[in-house]
Amino acid sequence: MVAIIDWFLGMFSKDIGIDLGTCNTLVCVRGDGIVLSEPSVVAVRKGTNTVLMNGQAVGNAAKEMIGKTPGSIVAIRPLKDGVISDFDVAEAMIKYFVRKVHHRKALFRPRVAISIPSGITEVEKRAVVNSAERAGAREVFLIEEPVAAGIGAGLPIQDPVGSMIVDIGGGTTEMAVLSLGGMVTSTSLRIAGDEMDDAIMQYMKRTYNLLIGEQTAERIKIQIGSAYPLEQETTMEVKGRDLMAQLPRKIVISSEEIREALKEPIEAIIASIKETLEKTPPELSSDLYDRGITLAGGGSLLRDVDKAIYKAVGIPVRIADDPMTCVAKGTGIILEHLDELKDSLESGEDVS
Fold first, then answer.
1. In this structure, are residues 305 and 311 in contact, taking their beta carbons and an 8 Å threshold?
2. Which of the following CATH numbers is that of domain 160-191+265-321: 3.40.50.10540, 3.30.70.1350, 1.20.1540.10, 3.30.420.40?
3. Is 142 helix (H, G, I), strand (E, B) or coil?
4. At what angle do helices 263-278 and 305-313 cross, to 10 degrees?
5. pTM as predicted
6. Burial 220-255 (b: 16+ CB within 10 A, else e)
7. pLDDT single digits (tens) 11-46
8. 117, 172, 202, 207: which is deepest, by most CB within 10 A?
9. Which one, of 39, 52, 136, lies nearest residue 91 by Cα?
10. Among 264, 251, 299, CA closest to 22
11. Predicted confidence band at 346 (pLDDT cuts at 50, 70, 90)?
């Protein structure tokens, strides 16, 4: 009887996969692929958690407000280091994204698969499940990010061979050696794109007494940031507030300076990759020497990060095709086979 009800409900709703990222959220609908990619930002009235613009100040609309709001409005990122830090705002954000892509009546609620960092606690898992259920999910399944990223990157994770994925996101860097459908060894590091942006902000403050915002730091990282010496170094004009005069000022910085600013977070990521490789069984290590490491996530788009990792570990490194969508694509592929895989996934009912 339960199976018949699930089948009936499935006829009128579509399963949804969510890459719930610290910086960006991607939503994949079963059969349709990725249908939404927006910043994980919500604009609320200060002290109320009331979302502005009749609940529409989420994603792109909210990101435009960061650093520009009056005192009565706050632009919040409800996830920090890959996990929910503000329950109510995260619920509002998930609800907005689910309703935006699920054009059905409330009766026919979707099944939702959500990617999670491999190192989060049971309490953090419960927060994700509760947010999704209260946002309208009929059933919630949790998928560990490295597994979803590996599937989305096209790695043969079901085969008896070792494949290594390193997903450099906004809040966490997830790395794992995958084989026979699961993680053999893994590391979840809460250093990723956000820490790179913060390192640039601190460098500008320390070196030039110039205060810049998060979005400016991100633009610097994208335009002239690198993890390895460039064939042709570049410069960029940066505007901010002088901490001494408290007035607007602009300077010109070089790619060499930004590489120096990014040195610490890059070295931390490489150290964790080495740690994961050291924990890998010998037979799988030999596979990795031949097959190499696959990079995914927005952080893998930092110039020459693959060269920096290769120099440090000595095995081939490649960047996945369209690395920012690997996790979302992985959830979509899992959704296509959800009925066969649901017993091996972590259901919301299993989370204590």
1. no
2. 3.30.420.40
3. strand
4. 50
5. 0.88
6. bbeebbbbbeeeeeeebebebeeeeeeeebeeebeb
7. 446 889 999 888 899 999 988 889 999 999 888 887
8. 172
9. 136
10. 299
11. confident
Residues 115 and 128 sit within 8 Å (Cβ to Cβ) = no
C-alpha 203 chain-centroid distance:
24
Q: φ and ψ at 336, to 5 degrees?
A: -60, -25
Which amino acid appears at position 93 of this protein?
M
Distance (Å, whole) CA 16 – CA 18: 7
Block residue for tokens 């992985």: 330
Give the span between the Cα atoms of 242 and 276, in whole angstroms: 42
Q: Assess contact for 6 and 76: CB atoms under 8 A.
A: no
- The CATH fold assigned to 2-40+77-147+327-350 is Nucleotidyltransferase; domain 5 (3.30.420)
